[in-house]
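A favour, since you know our structure tokens better than I do. Would you make up a two-line entry for one protein for me to read? Write everything out right here, beneath this request.
=====
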Amino acid sequence: MRIGMIAPLEFRLPPIAYGGSEQVVSLLTEELVRRGHHVTLFATGDSITNAELVSGAPYGLRGTDRDKGVLNMLNAAACMERAVEFDVIHNHVPLEGMPLAALVETPVLTTFHGGFAGDWIRLYNKYRGWYNTISNSASSLLELHDRYVGVIYNAIDVESYPYNPGEREDFALFLSRISHEKGPDIAIEAAIRGRFRLVIAGNVDEPDKEFFESRILPRVDGDQIQYVGEADARMKRDLYSRARFLLAPITWEEPFGLIFAEAMACGTPVIAFNRGAASEVIEDGITGYIVEDVEAMVDATLKIDRIDPARCRKRVEDRFNVRRMADDYQAAYGEIVENQSKTHPEYRDPAQLALPLLN
């Protein structure tokens, strides 16, 4: 199958540190290529891939003064201009790709990596392409349309995460973007109440600097509460495999939560607030604990040793591995192409559409 893959341009693929959506797109792309599909990847020019790479920007846009909206739109348009070459287009930039989907005959599948609110709902209601969500929680927030292909959970490269079934160091870990919705201030409060050490790792984006400087930094003492900056791929694996548990006091409807799966792959249990998809990724009482407030979070830390690291690892191996994700998307692509042919009799294989140009 010929697939046009539109990636966000915030980070290169695979991302060096932060970049959950980019990580998923990279893993999916490489697995599809390994299976023999021809994938054309529209991403940053410094991306590392076995697919045919089309550069939408020379490097990741996060932290630069480049106009992300304009460049992501141009990147999506570059794919749509070549739509005749593809059996299906897989769009990972809803804002830019969804309005363009109506302009091409090739079916478009959009993966909703984030939530929809405000005027985004208008965009969603106007969209006539195919789409999937990455959790049941995310789908429950939408009035589902006819071309919904279901929930396809994200995945991680499980084998690349070191499994530690043995002794752990005496600290809890918070690893995420430092922002209000991720709850680092709540994690600090839990650590202070529970009298345990907390290591905080994460990037600070420009909109979150005031929150970081006023709510987080004053409470970092370098002893009980430590901040170690943004963790790259190697550092986060090291932290996951040494920590006793991961704290995730999320304050928004997290659509998936890759950090949950990453920690569990290392055998590290997760204690998370009951928001978004947390209860779909974490098995309460088996791979961690789902709690409602800070007091319950502190209580959960006292029984964290009841969690078997092997159960954590197996949960991720069984449900959140790359092979399963690629299987699900392959099935979705097949369903979309078959349905497109049935509902649009004029639709033909893109290669056939191009034949007259070759004669």
